[in-house]
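Objective 1.3, modelling of assemblies. Example input:
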Amino acid sequence: MENQRLCVKDFISGQTVDQVFVVRQKELRTTKTGDLYISATLGDRSGSIPGRMWQASEAIFDSIPPDGFLHVKGRVEDYRGTLQIVIDACRPFPTDKVNLSDFLPVTENDVEEMWSELLEILRGVKNKHLRLLVKKFIEDQQIVSAFKRAPAAMQLHNPFVGGLLEHTLSVARNAKALLGMYPHLNADLVLTGVFLHDIGKSAELSGGLNIRYTDRGQLVGHITIAAIWVQEKAALLAEELGEPFPKRIVNLLQHIILSHHGEYEFGSPKLPAIPEAFFIHYLDNLDAKMYMTINRIEKDPDHDSSFTGWVKELRTRLYKHSGDLSDGEDDGSQTGSLFE
Amino acid sequence: MENQRLCVKDFISGQTVDQVFVVRQKELRTTKTGDLYISATLGDRSGSIPGRMWQASEAIFDSIPPDGFLHVKGRVEDYRGTLQIVIDACRPFPTDKVNLSDFLPVTENDVEEMWSELLEILRGVKNKHLRLLVKKFIEDQQIVSAFKRAPAAMQLHNPFVGGLLEHTLSVARNAKALLGMYPHLNADLVLTGVFLHDIGKSAELSGGLNIRYTDRGQLVGHITIAAIWVQEKAALLAEELGEPFPKRIVNLLQHIILSHHGEYEFGSPKLPAIPEAFFIHYLDNLDAKMYMTINRIEKDPDHDSSFTGWVKELRTRLYKHSGDLSDGEDDGSQTGSLFE
Amino acid sequence: MENQRLCVKDFISGQTVDQVFVVRQKELRTTKTGDLYISATLGDRSGSIPGRMWQASEAIFDSIPPDGFLHVKGRVEDYRGTLQIVIDACRPFPTDKVNLSDFLPVTENDVEEMWSELLEILRGVKNKHLRLLVKKFIEDQQIVSAFKRAPAAMQLHNPFVGGLLEHTLSVARNAKALLGMYPHLNADLVLTGVFLHDIGKSAELSGGLNIRYTDRGQLVGHITIAAIWVQEKAALLAEELGEPFPKRIVNLLQHIILSHHGEYEFGSPKLPAIPEAFFIHYLDNLDAKMYMTINRIEKDPDHDSSFTGWVKELRTRLYKHSGDLSDGEDDGSQTGSLFE
Amino acid sequence: MENQRLCVKDFISGQTVDQVFVVRQKELRTTKTGDLYISATLGDRSGSIPGRMWQASEAIFDSIPPDGFLHVKGRVEDYRGTLQIVIDACRPFPTDKVNLSDFLPVTENDVEEMWSELLEILRGVKNKHLRLLVKKFIEDQQIVSAFKRAPAAMQLHNPFVGGLLEHTLSVARNAKALLGMYPHLNADLVLTGVFLHDIGKSAELSGGLNIRYTDRGQLVGHITIAAIWVQEKAALLAEELGEPFPKRIVNLLQHIILSHHGEYEFGSPKLPAIPEAFFIHYLDNLDAKMYMTINRIEKDPDHDSSFTGWVKELRTRLYKHSGDLSDGEDDGSQTGSLFE
Amino acid sequence: MENQRLCVKDFISGQTVDQVFVVRQKELRTTKTGDLYISATLGDRSGSIPGRMWQASEAIFDSIPPDGFLHVKGRVEDYRGTLQIVIDACRPFPTDKVNLSDFLPVTENDVEEMWSELLEILRGVKNKHLRLLVKKFIEDQQIVSAFKRAPAAMQLHNPFVGGLLEHTLSVARNAKALLGMYPHLNADLVLTGVFLHDIGKSAELSGGLNIRYTDRGQLVGHITIAAIWVQEKAALLAEELGEPFPKRIVNLLQHIILSHHGEYEFGSPKLPAIPEAFFIHYLDNLDAKMYMTINRIEKDPDHDSSFTGWVKELRTRLYKHSGDLSDGEDDGSQTGSLFE
Amino acid sequence: MENQRLCVKDFISGQTVDQVFVVRQKELRTTKTGDLYISATLGDRSGSIPGRMWQASEAIFDSIPPDGFLHVKGRVEDYRGTLQIVIDACRPFPTDKVNLSDFLPVTENDVEEMWSELLEILRGVKNKHLRLLVKKFIEDQQIVSAFKRAPAAMQLHNPFVGGLLEHTLSVARNAKALLGMYPHLNADLVLTGVFLHDIGKSAELSGGLNIRYTDRGQLVGHITIAAIWVQEKAALLAEELGEPFPKRIVNLLQHIILSHHGEYEFGSPKLPAIPEAFFIHYLDNLDAKMYMTINRIEKDPDHDSSFTGWVKELRTRLYKHSGDLSDGEDDGSQTGSLFE
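Predicted structure (tokens):
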């Protein structure tokens, strides 16, 4: 049935609705005449829409799962210029029967394929202790499971399920491609650092249907979380090995993680102080900016302008036609220029 | 014998030398005529002086302990405007026989008394889990021993053995004094946060005779080190208690530590986001600035000027006579002003 | 009668209104059919609401006192989603009969008690000239009267009648509590400086029912105003004493006032250059931030989120549960985390 | 006799000295053999030179006037690469017999002529109250005398006796020349503002032979000093006139003074908020930069380079040949370029 | 007919419309019942208004010229609080019959008179090569034509047809007036630099009815465009003269253009490094700020406040009564102040 | 003979000198006894040393070629702690007989091989107009010759002959390696942009034996120079092709050049606004930082410290042992830590 579901962003007034939504918010209210009604926010991966159920009861209200799924029957109405769903009937819908990707933005790539490719690259790590450390992370089911699901960022780049893995793999590929150019770099340190640089984001974001920062994400942040994990894994290894885990490796990996934002202003408590940290900082930044610029240009809603709207993070508008080198209508060569 | 030792800063040309120094640096060199000689830097808590031993041998050179103590006989000479010691004879001196405070700048307060007072204040922590956590730190002999010895900073404030304890105690006293003014604050969280805010400095600085940053101090930094220790102690407690240690406590304490510098630019990866973090940030800053300003004014070498030289960290010169409210000679009221 | 008045923020559609409001704005307009009607903004300490009086006359319009009080009869209506009062009748209400605190946000503390406590603290000033100077300010009825009424700031902290006194007293208490910790500080200078640091705000804000900046407040500012007052009071004292008032005292007090914002960017033309100026700067900042954070958390309208909305001045969101150290639902320990 | 005096900067080793110097510093010291000798710093407008008098007595030392003049007989010697004067005999020299301009850098223009021209421009002020206020300043002998002597700045621009007047006159001329272009400007306010914008510098710098900041200059600063003077003069006028002096005039003039540095970072507690304040800010800046650039280029010691050394305040080096538009040897057109 | 046209900003509900508009945007849409209607934005120099034509056809839609003129018959209606025009009939209107100044904001000065005055000033350039270069620009019909039409900026200052010429002339006048004050300046270089400093704006903005940045304007910018033009004109002259054009002149003029914004942050790739560049930078800034402040004050919509709203570019609000030195009602002297 | 020449940095006192130097500076002076002597600065690629020739004549002085080569016979002496050469005899040495790499720091790679590889990469450009444009640059003998010789920067990275080519090739290789990862990028635009991004440096630095900025380099800068060259080459091509060269290509290439520093503060008048500009900005920065960090670590003179000295441009010290992952002596694990 879910195959035929309509995206929220495509609704028009007058449509009949008979499908599943994720519940983003719900509230029981009283009308001026004293009747109960339910006000809710329903959504899917394409957006959100208000829902109203008149003549509701507390029982119905209680049956609606917050942050869960709801099968809704009703119709779309235009109320003062905004669409809403008038709900005739609803019942909770089991989470394991939904196609999660209908409700959450998800990477277009295959998560397991990406994970395999990343593991393949990490197999290139030769230093014994780094190999063991990488292994400890890979065997941590909780971390790996969250790592595969996490977005790379809330909004800025790869903001969808699998985005963190997608971004990490992309940086890893690029690092592998360029390591040969700089033989002075410690390749093992680079590859491990790339794997771990953003891994703390797995715990920075809560993994419900509605992605948001966890308290720990906001109060402590992914940079410190990842540094702590390195400490913990190294301690576990020392115990298993029966000998100290090299302190220098812990220092260097934590340094790479702490410094990878490159500037204090962006939340790095340390600036890069080894070539490998600079290398990762620039490749991380490069991949994020490639996503941001290409995605922002593709999604730009104004088809008439040759520039996107203002992009605050980049302090500029983006030009949309660098891919096409022939002169277009909008490059000042057309009539209408001050030069006429 | 060490009672009569002369401070390096008081040496004058022509003096005979027969006392112990700390060896800050040593080098074996060859004269133009091919003879070996030793070039060394000798010091005590008041400063450093070059030493030269002519007609030296490799055996003598090897007997000089780097970062250790040396009994030197010789005399002070003026060489091109700079004093140096011409060494006639020298022998290593056992570390356990020196009065360490002759060689390292040390707090003027009694370390154990300060430690007791701090413990007394910490006894005020009522929350069970915070009490246990504080206890875990206090029972960690390695951390406590280093905490008592560490300076509060390399140069900026309380830069001497015991300085970290002195500063921490001072902030704790002030916090205790002001907590009553702000009943909304969580007093237990504040007191524990004050105790731990700079504790990572115990591992940021190496504890030889010549204080300097450790590799870990430079690459990772005391802020992240302390956050990691909180994680480790909480994990130990969870194991001992057989139940999870409250995550919120870990988050809040780490947040206080991470944010206590108050600005990204000063190495805080998170800005204060709870009242307790602001409270600690300002009291920490206040105490550090009190030391910096009062100490800088007291030590100012120029007795004629009513202002110190430029203080880079404060972006100003300091006025030295705010303690005396009567008009002095230098306040523009004397003859010689443009108003004459 | 005013006991029963309803707060504007508690109005609901359909209520009958028969009480006094402060008039924030009034306008006489013409309907499309040529009739006159009155559009006004009515308010009290809890907020504002539009009022409409149909079939109005110029006489009625003229009888409404701008920035004064109006007794209104009518009813509350919902007009396109916004509440408004449809006015049936209205008449001006004498200012001396209203309870001013119904219309202006006012400190919850007793103004005269606070003033007494502040005077008590100032009695601790021992230096003769500073005592005389403090006395001159205390005897200036115009300044004292305005000082007791002024808010500490337009919006940032203690933004209500009596807020300036409340904040000044709080800083004075804290200063007194900590002065013993720093015996090098000139306590007389500190206490006088605390009293005067923000006193210029008494002339920076106009004292009508609707607090706003005076022209002098915007063009010259409270920092320079206070520095000028110190100069004037010192000149008066010199005249009365028949001898010069110590220039150094004037310099130091003006310096403390000028530098107490701590940064050029925040409007201080001089950076702190004496320990006492740093001391006051940090205690001033501490008290302001305590108000801002605690108040912002208490007033946060969203009860579901564990964080407030973005607080621009603090460059962060605030965490609302630092007062409760047990694990809550929102700290990432609940099901639904990426770690599941 | 003083006609023949040699400038300190022109001394060469071996010369006989028999002329007057200003005493910048003096000290009585003991040689290693226990004899007394005098170490002094002697100077004139061109620079400073150390002086040494061997076999000195306390009586001679006491006869040397600090910050006064000394007639010295002796000779110039090269001591370890630095010139010094070996003093054979010396005696104090009466201040009223020296040509002050030999010892202090002085404007090349005639001070009284400049003052007259400035008065002439100020006569253009038509508003009654501004005229009276200007008059009050002009009649203040203490201020005017200091105003005529003060430099415009310690180092940055017009750093010599009369420099403040020279700069103020220059800005006044320019203001007068451009006022016609902007008829919306209040010309009276502009001219008065130009006159007063830097007048506080008269009290910011001490007027001895060795110009330096007064305590008041450093603690309070010329901007606040001038704002206070406006307040005081207006109060005097109100008393004399028997009616209030217009508050708006005081506000506007103080605003112009407070805001004329144009940026918080440069010590302005208020940013320009009236057209007249912007006008004065730019003309002030323009004249200062004209002096700085032209003077820096003229004084550049390196005749081979077409650029001066780095000018920190301007964050650039200055090109020295903008006055000559023909191609020179150094513009990259000569042989030796990478293009050869 | 156009004489009687009503300005868009003066429309009221119910009016009949029968006049020409510029078409700012047009769109063909479908109602819920499947009928076509046209949504357009119509405008003139005073503002914009939505237009709706019901029961439209594709033929009518196609006849509407984008960025062209449209004669509209219909009436003004209030739709949910916003005015719109319901179009009964419309037909395209020939561009050459409109009074362009009805649709574009235009300088109030005579363009040709301004141009003549600028040429007269430029005739003062004596250096042969600079004269030739100025002549080359003046003879470039394309540049001159665009230069006369361009605004000085999109929004900040002189944002109307002829604004660039108006601003350039104003700076040239001021430069001429002040050149006599600074005889060290190269007057020829200054005058030519003033003429060319913003000339690149002629190509930065497209010259249709709706002024906006060209692609080249956004991607390359007027500063680089002008530097390139100098290079091209110099190359043409070298060819014509049969000898190299002096490289130093090209360097200096390009330097003046590149550095005239005065700060890297404002898009200058070089900071001023010759006195002439500083001179032009300050006069350029002065004239722009005079326009911005005076215009902002004049246009301020709120007649009750003595301050304008916040002006983001100036980081302040502007005081509106600096032209009137008598005390007004709003300067804090009136009743209602905290001082009562 | 030059094979045996000693590097200046290896000189020791007492050595006999009989070899060629480059003349960095020369001056004819008079001793106190009136004799002439020559003061010169002699150098090679390793450093500089003062030279003195006593009893010199004007004829000898005139024979010394400034910025040329000089064969010197004499000996090395220690004069007050600094080595100098006392010249017994000297004669000019023909430039074409020296091994230039003895006197100028030169890339260790083969210039022609690097050039061939760069050309090979550029052959991958498929767009007709970009190919033609690249060809125009490659055929410009003056530019290519200078491009091959130029350093990449004065000091920061690759500061030696051939450094610009080395850096450009490195960025081109990396771009080629990563282009496959981002199929949305316009590969032709990227490769051409990489080739041209720094090409203006060929004209920014003078090509004598002593590399320094040209006047044009300092006044105009390599960024604007390169943008101008693109304009000129495009104009030539348009002429040759008999049709306009696409404006969009010119805009985009100039945009890439103008924006490649990535920040206004680093001299870019435009911020990156197309994905290709971001791509080049990061790869440029990455390669420069790789050189800076690896080179700085290798050259660090202090072998005892695990960190280099402060690196101003990177705002940190660099850790020297990231290449070796075993625990070293300096990582805080050794005895002597505060943890003992």
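The longest strand of chain F covers residues 16-30.
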